[in-house]
Amino acid sequence: MNNLYPFAMNPSKVAAIIPAAGIGIRMGLSTPKQFFELKGVPILLHTLRVFQQIEAIGHIIVVVSSENCSRVEDLVRNDHLTKVYRVITGGDERQDSVLAGLEALPEEVDLVLVHDGVRPFVPISVIENCLQEAEKSGAAMAAIQVKDTLKAVSSRNVIEKTINRAGVWQAQTPQVANKSLLTEAYALAAGKKDFIATDEAGLLELLGCPVKVVEGSEKNIKITRPEDLILAKAILMESGKDVKSLAKSSRYRSGYGYDAHRLVPGRPLILGGEEIPHEKGLQGHSDADVLTHALCDAMLGAAGAGDIGGHFPDTDRKFKDISSLKILESVAELVSEKGYALLNADITVVAQKPRLAPYFIAMKKNLAAACAVNPDVINLKAT
User: Fold this and answer.
1) Is 280 within 8 Å of 315 (Cβ atoms)?
2) Under DSSP, is residue 209 helix (H, G, I), strand (E, B) or coil?
3) Distance CA 313, CA 332 (A)
4) Together in a domain, 273 and 231
5) What is the per-residue pLDDT for 249?
6) Dihedrals φ, ψ of 11, to 5°?
7) Domain tally, the chain
8) Rounded to the nearest 5°, which phi and psi values hold at 303?
9) Fewer CB within 10 Å, N or C, the chain?
10) Are 113 and 14 in contact (CB under 8 A)?
């Protein structure tokens, strides 16, 4: 389950750069790999939805080719990705694209995360662990230990030697560093003719800056070859995202959820992960998002897994003021571990005011992202 401790970071000082300017020649597709659809959703959009949910990140810069800027801007707008600060044009190399992203960051940003646009399955826990380690150490990256035997091979395809894999790790993203360090590293690289780094850690090595390694995930694959799509579809199935396949199963179960909180002055009104302008908010230990709590209880009930109070008691300080979307993410993971996935949720909010219909689209996006399902699975009503 995901780490539920709220971040102490100021989101306005943390930004993510998502380079996605490649053309994907190795994929052999008629469309760039980042726009290939998995379950009807472009790979890049899967990735952006993950980072939209990270509370510690306040800004997202998406770097794409010039011909795809308007296309990505449409995706961002239609999916209500409110953290996307800018969609900008990248360069010929990944290094050029990330530098463009650095130059486009808001002035107040101190900590910068870089993540490949075609790594859509990065666990939220890996992102948060990288951010926390970089905040403490200055720079951190995700990686996994190499398991296979490694061979050094000559230009004539003859084995020269076996490489000792002890201490050898396979780099992943995210890679996170203080903005000042990255800026200095890029300036140093600019002065070295023909120097091209394949990742940010390589640039920081050039600077002599130590980079801490955070345990990554085998699921955090980079989709660059046709065979990667087979693995990607398997990951979707395993994680419970492919609800169409699960719908063929006879294991249908339904649950019922209900929640109510008192409206009080001095609190924000949060429903479905959206802050609704109103003179009063809901009283509670968490953010008191009754809509999301009711969905959590319904899912837990359907899976025979108790209720929200049992898993996230209001006597536990670590849940104080936590976003209910974080709780929903964990409930969805728990339900998935039991072999179930959300196929349909019909939710009614009983409230005389304020008017909620204008916020339903954004709410559906938030709930769907937390449950890793298509927004069409969620239906919202108010009375």
Assistant:
1) no
2) coil
3) 18
4) no
5) 43
6) -60, -30
7) 2
8) -85, 0
9) C
10) yes
Candidates 117, 172, 130; CA nearest to 14 is 130
Handedness of CA 143, 149, 152, 154 (dihedral sign): negative
In degrees rounded to 5, what are phi and psi of residue 123?
A: -65, 145
Tell me if 262 is assigned to some domain: yes
Q: Which two tokens stand for residue 253?
A: 């179960």
DSSP classification of residue 68: G
* Residue tagged 């008629």 (tokens): 30
Same-domain check for residues 67 and 212: yes
| One-letter amino acid of 53 | Q
Domain assignment present for residue 302? The answer is yes
Q: Is residue 2 part of a domain?
A: no
* Structure confidence by residue, pLDDT tens digits, 17-43: 999 987 765 555 667 889 988 878 899
Residues 6+ apart with CB under 8 A from 299: 255, 257, 331, 332, 335, 342, 371
Residue with tokens 């959300």: 342
Contact predicate 113/17, CB 8 Å: yes
- Give tens-digit pLDDT for 254-307: 899 999 988 999 999 999 999 999 999 999 999 999 999 999 999 999 988 889
CA distances from 235 to 38, 217, 271 (A): 11, 12, 30
Q: Which domain holds residue 359?
A: 248-382
* 227 and 110 both lie in a single domain: yes
Residue 266, Ramachandran bin (φ over 0: left; ψ between -120 and 50: alpha; else beta): left
Torsion angle, alpha carbons of 343, 122, 8, 186, to 10: -150
| CA separation for the pair 21, 30 (Å, rounded) | 15
Residue type, 24: G
